[in-house]
Amino acid sequence: MAEGPQPKRKREEEEGEKNGGTATQGGAGAAFALSDLRVRRVLRESARDKIVFLHAERVGLSGEGTDAVVILEKTPFQEEKIPDLLKKPMNAELQMHNDIYCTFYLSPPPELSEIKATVVYPATEKHIQKYLRQEVHLIRETWEDYKNITLPFIQSQSFSIQWVYNILEKKAEADRIVHENPDPSNGFVLVPDLKWNQNQLEDLYLIALVHRREIKSLRDLTAEHLPLLRNVLQEGKEAIVKRFGVPGSQLRIYLHYQPSYHHLHVHFTALGYDAPGSSVERAHLLADVIDNLAMDSTYYQKRALTFPLRADEPLFKKFQEAGKV
Ligand code: GTA
Q1: Which of 194, 203, 205, 218 has most ligand 1 atoms within 8 Å of CB, for mutation?
Q2: Which of 158, 246, 247, 267 has the fewest CB atoms within 10 Å of its CB?
Q3: Where is this region: Disordered (predicted)?
Q4: Alpha helices per DSSP H over the chain
Q5: What spacing in Å lies between the alpha carbon of 85 and ligand 1's midpoint?
Q6: 71 touches ligand 1 (CB under 6 Å)
Q7: Which residue's CA is the nearest one to ligand 1's atom 27?
Q8: What CA–CA distances, in Å, run from 279 to 166, 274, 283?
């Protein structure tokens, strides 16, 4: 495990435990208990990542179901708890023994066998599609394609960004804020990402949400945004080394294109963590974005950008109809 200050389990997670898995109405979403949700089908699973994406539903009194997405993920090992795994009395079943090789199956006590559950409730069809395993294609989007195909599409339908406004307005996750620069034009809020449980630094993941609301993505950026981007890069790194002890040289700091949520945000992940969406077809390093804009203010209004789309996404169909794939 990385050296330096260790992350602490957050208060709201402890509250969650006390609540027996009940999500309260903290400025967003509806209140529900995990046990209210029924599994309808598996959308996707990965044996390698120890994660399963489920389409679930909550059946109301009228008998009508409301869709939910539930993501169950086995959490990474916490180094300080590993000795307990071998020591604490538990059912360790020997599966095979051959010469110097043997395999056991352990049934650890609950505190050593956590599963993180992320719930989207109520979930839209778009959420369900997002997590369904599907064929993926690469799109090469010119600036004209962006203006004629992508922009009208994202203006007509994209994921709600209410959760972003809830964070910026301190209606949700206020006690999780790691750093804030309150300047309305060049400021941002840095919070742990939904994907990080903050129990270990190996999969560190934070997200910087800018205060300005009109910047949808990389495509909108010009040299005018350089002070904002430089603040995010500099202050984000400083805040993370101060709070978590991870230096800037061990952080991957990037934007997604296309993002799922069209409000400018920057991902900060541990360099050693193969975070979902950190591959070349989607991630643009913030330091490179800053350099590109410093060289040419309209860089992102000129160049073609590549990004992946799932085969049944409506935007993919728009590119197909335009004869672009
Ligand atoms: N703090 O309420 C929130 C919140 N929401 C709704 C999203 N995020 C939030 N963070 C906080 N509070 O990193 C985070 C997301 C994401 C970022 C948005 O905001 O966790 P993006 O706009 O570039 O969209 O970033 P992206 O990357 O597509 O979003 P997302 O949801 O992370 O999906 C990426 C893919 O990761 C999914 O399609 C899925 O296949 C995959 N994935 C793998 N592991 C997981 C996991 N454990 N949880 C969710 N998705 C996972």
Answers
A1: 194
A2: 247
A3: 1-27
A4: 11-18, 82-87, 125-131, 143-145, 151-156, 162-168, 226-244, 286-295, 314-321
A5: 30
A6: yes
A7: 277
A8: 29, 8, 6
Q: State pLDDT tens for residues 35-64.
A: 889 999 999 999 888 999 999 999 887 878
Q: What would the pLDDT profile of 262-280 be if each residue is shown by its tens digit?
A: 999 999 999 999 999 999 9
Q: Is the ipTM of this complex over 0.90?
A: yes
Q: Is 219 in the pocket of ligand 1 (CB under 6 A)?
A: no
Interior/surface letters 270-299, b for 16+ CB within 10 angstroms, e for the rest: beebebeebeeebbbebeebbebbeeeeeb
Q: What is the pLDDT of residue 235?
A: 98
Amino acid at 227: P
- Run of H or E including 66: strand 65-74
Going from the C-alpha of 42 to that of each of 16, 70, 71, 187, 230, the distances in angstroms are 25, 10, 10, 40, 42
Looking at residues 76-90, what average pLDDT do you find? 81
Instruction: Tell me what percent of the chain is helix, strand and coil, each rounded to the nearest 5.
Output: 30, 30, 40
CA within 13 Å, CB half, 273: 24
- In terms of DSSP bridges, do strands 205-210 and 265-270 run parallel, antiparallel, or are they unpaired? antiparallel
Which residues does residue 103 pair with via DSSP β-bridges, in sequence order?
96
Rounded distance between C-alpha atoms, residue 157 and residue 153, angstroms: 6
